């Protein structure tokens, strides 16, 4: 693991979306952790924007069908992976750089009986521990912003996809250049390593060998979602701190508020991209 990736993993170690906090909330709301189904976790375990609808869009873009082997790059607590397995009938392999999240994912998968269908692995997106041409599709959500070398990760995803398979993912992008100070703030406070513009992302995908299927600017949709997410983080962080579970504190919340403002002003934003590995 590179040093920068270690910093990212440490940043996620006290993230308020954690397995201990999901279990605390689930138990408080249900009264027990008996007979938990994947659907019971959905309100708590999706660490990306636009919840289950975002999963459905990516699943449709990669044309997931029952029995497919899907790679989730930066799978976190495997919230999306559980949805793909339960709702689309696929088997999912997830890679993530955070030990807490890989261990938490295994615990949550076992809780809902999906431990044989979802395989969370501790690994870097820049060095995928798989043979060539293994997967029928790949997805990722709001994660490439953390990866020190996005081109390397794109090349790895391309390598492990079988010909004809697709990679569909969402990520943060930069619409107008941020100052060096702002970029340093993004790096130190939300572990964002670098941002491409949408045209840069398309060029990198094409250079990697992908045929572009679509590139959708989702900045306008994210503006509202992120304002609500900031409120969620404010409540969640305080709640997690009270419960003695991992929490982040004020600096993170202030930086997140700046990010939301930058999205609403269209300085930064989001994109959903889909590329296909040619036959
Ligand atoms: C915003 S979360 C998304 C988690 C999950 N995809 C979801 O939607 O619930 C980003 C995840 O990327 C992981 N990550 C960051 N850099 C990584 C890298 N270089 N390799 C693998 N995983 C990484 C983090 O540990 C974190 O779990």
Automatic annotation (TrEMBL):
Pfam family, one: Methyltransf_11
Biological processes annotated in GO: methylation
Highest taxon of the lineage: Bacteria
Coiled-coil blocks: none
Gene Ontology MF, one: demethylrebeccamycin--D-glucose O-methyltransferase activity
Entry's EC annotation: 2.1.1.164
Uppermost EC category: transferase
Classification via InterPro entries: Erg6_SMT_methyltransf, Methyltransf_11, SAM-dependent_MTases_sf
Domain Methyltransferase type, first and last residues per copy: 71-168
Transmembrane segments: none
Nucleotidyltransferase among keywords: no
Keywords from the named record: Methyltransferase, Transferase
Name of this protein: Demethylrebeccamycin-D-glucose O-methyltransferase
